[in-house]
């Protein structure tokens, strides 16, 4: 029997409701497999500020570092926005990123069958559907110099350095190409090599790395053109690999193209396979629906799916969660956060119970 230690950080607003469903999912996974998940609920973000005056108390950080993964519910409450940046709940995530040394971000995005009506795109643009993953570097890109702001004759000035090394690019490329090998074997690398020296290095390094994957089709595109093409024909893309800033902007754009951002998760991976996992709606305040038992939990389920795949190396359990998510949508179940024509609205807790029960039934019937 294999055991896994998972740190759970509820965060604020809808975070505690989502983590409550996550606990149900992990308990169901333990019951239907030969694995046991040790769940460590940590005080951090808003609750850390309230209890200890800091977003990530040292005791919580120590416990997190003993775990294979961290699952974070949500941050973004407006009540903390008047605090200095170093004291806000978001600082907990930044500190965890540094402590875990995460290097790359994965954002899987798709339009489920029957949900194309939610997308803001015309039906003609979705002829080929949409099912892609954005692999975004987290090590390089723009960062603030020691003295980013100065005063000159023309007034204040500021600058950020877009920096990349071959090592950084190769690490991100490795994730993208291995992922593509298990999908449709297509990688699109996005850069701005016509004007940026860092993008020239990016393109050269990606091209060289691709030689080790002759079975993978590699294309290069400029980020501005790709941003238009992915709207015109999202089905033409499979795995997208790009730099920190470009990926940050593009992944949010693509999430909105699905029309259902609350259905997806995000993974931030370290070289040692540990990671930070969140639902896609992280940073959205969601205060208007917090505490009403209506937030949609499929985003936290998708984050757990990624956690199982990358930090626990359990593709079988990850596939089981994919199966359950698809079955919930196929059976036309949703929550009031995501109203869908023809779907039945149930509460967050009811959806969490339904997911847990389906995990148990699917494991018994289809995944012995």
List the helices and strands and how they pair.
Layout: E1 2-11, H1 15-31, E2 35-41, H2 45-52, H3 58-65, E3 69-74, H4 90-100, E4 102-110, E5 131-137, E6 141-143, E7 149-152, E8 155-158, E9 161-163, H5 166-181, E10 186-191, H6 197-210, E11 217-222, H7 223-232, E12 239-242, H8 244-258, E13 265-270, E14 275-279, H9 298-310, H10 315-330, E15 333-334, E16 344-345, H11 348-365
Parallel strand pairs: 1-2, 1-3, 3-14, 5-12, 10-11, 10-12, 15-16
Antiparallel strand pairs: 4-5, 4-13, 6-9, 7-8, 13-14
Helix pairs in contact: 1-11, 5-6, 7-8, 9-10, 10-11
Can you count the beta strands? 16
Alpha carbon gyration radius = 21 Å
The spatial strand order of the largest sheet comes to 2-1-3-14-13-4-5-12-10-11
Approximate strand percentage: 15-25%
**Which whole number gives the mean pLDDT?**
92
Class per helix and strand makeup = alpha/beta
N-to-C order of helices and strands: EHEHHEHEEEEEEHEHEHEHEEHHEEH
């Amino acid at each position: 029997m294999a055991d896994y230690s998972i740190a759970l950080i509820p965060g604020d607003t809808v975070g505690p409701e989502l983590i409550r469903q996550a606990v149900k999912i992990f308990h169901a996974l333990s019951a239907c497999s030969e694995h046991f998940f040790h769940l460590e609920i940590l005080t951090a973000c808003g609750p850390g500020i309230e209890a200890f005056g800091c977003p990530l108390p040292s005791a919580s950080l120590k416990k997190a570092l003993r775990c294979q993964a961290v699952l974070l519910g949500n941050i973004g409450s407006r009540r903390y926005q008047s605090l200095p940046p170093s004291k806000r709940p978001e600082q907990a995530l930044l500190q965890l990123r540094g402590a875990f040394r995460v290097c790359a971000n994965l954002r899987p995005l798709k339009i489920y069958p029957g949900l194309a009506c939610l997308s803001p795109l015309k039906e003609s643009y979705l002829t080929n559907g949409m099912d892609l993953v954005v692999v975004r570097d987290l090590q390089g890109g723009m960062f603030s110099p020691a003295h980013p702001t100065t005063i000159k004759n023309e007034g204040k000035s500021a600058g950020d350095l877009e920096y990349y090394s071959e090592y950084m690019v190769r690490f991100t490329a490795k994730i993208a190409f291995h992922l593509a090998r298990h999908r449709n074997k297509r990688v699109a690398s996005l850069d701005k090599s016509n004007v940026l020296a860092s993008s020239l290095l990016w393109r050269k390094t990606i091209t060289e790395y691709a030689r080790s994957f002759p079975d993978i089709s590699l294309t290069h595109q400029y980020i501005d053109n790709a941003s238009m093409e992915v709207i015109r024909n999202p089905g033409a893309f499979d795995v997208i690999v790009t730099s920190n800033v470009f990926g940050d902007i593009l992944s949010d754009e693509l999430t909105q193209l699905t029309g259902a951002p609350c259905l997806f998760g995000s993974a931030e991976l370290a070289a040692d396979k540990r990671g930070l996992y969140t639902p896609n709606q992280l940073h959205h305040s969601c205060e208007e629906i917090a505490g009403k038992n209506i937030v949609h939990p499929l985003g936290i389920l998708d984050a757990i799916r990624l956690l199982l795949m990358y930090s626990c190396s359990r593709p079988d359990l990850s596939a089981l969660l994919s199966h359950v998510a698809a079955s919930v949508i196929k059976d036309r179940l949703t929550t009031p956060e995501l109203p869908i024509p023809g779907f039945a609205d149930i509460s967050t807790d009811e959806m969490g119970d339904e997911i847990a029960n389906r995990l148990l039934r699917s494991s018994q019937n289809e995944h012995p």
